[in-house]
Amino acid sequence: MGRFSRKELKEALRIYNEAHQKSSETGDWSIWASIFTDDATYLEHAYGEFRGRKEIEKWITAVMAPFPHMTFPHEWACIDEEHDAIIFCVQNTLTHPKDPTKKFAFPNWTRVIYAGNGKFSFEEDIYNPARDAEKAIIGWLSAGGKFATEPKLKPKYR
Questions:
Q1: How many helices (H) and strands (E) would you count in the chain?
Q2: Using the 8-state DSSP alphabet, how is residue 71 labeled?
Q3: Please, which pLDDT band fits residue 156 given cuts at 50, 70 and 90?
Q4: What average pLDDT does range 79-89 have in this prediction?
Q5: What is the pTM of this model?
Q6: Strand order in 36-44's β-sheet?
Q7: What domains are there in the chain, each with its CATH number?
Q8: Residues in CB range of 102: below 8 A, 6 or more apart
Q9: With 70 as the cut, is the pLDDT of residue 21 above it?
Q10: Which residue, of 64, 101, 147, 158, has the fewest CB within 10 Å?
């Protein structure tokens, strides 16, 4: 059995989602990075591995700079009480630049480990950057979407 109850893990997911939402609304991704422990590990299949909250913040603020208002609506979530983990699927979503009823999105499966006190010690994102992410972003740009800044990072892996 893990250290946290199902109720605590549900609350942790609410905290995670609230930080994501605030970052999407404001474009300030340091808000989201603040939910990680000082020694957290983040495995990102396109960009590599990041260790520690500061490294996670440096990466997330750079990678989100071109589209700071991307949203992440959840499709589903499950709680693994034995391992203090939450697994969920989101759609990384960009709103159509001319028609807000249309979206450009790609799926992302995430596993986070809750460390307590509103902080997470681990995250791993699983998605297909070459097929899914690229298609959504190219579609968004073709429809008139514009980067807020030029991309600052290039994926390590494709």
A1: 4, 6
A2: B
A3: confident
A4: 98
A5: 0.92
A6: 48-51, 36-44, 119-126, 103-116, 85-95, 74-80
A7: 6-142 (3.10.450.50)
A8: 95, 96, 143
A9: yes
A10: 101
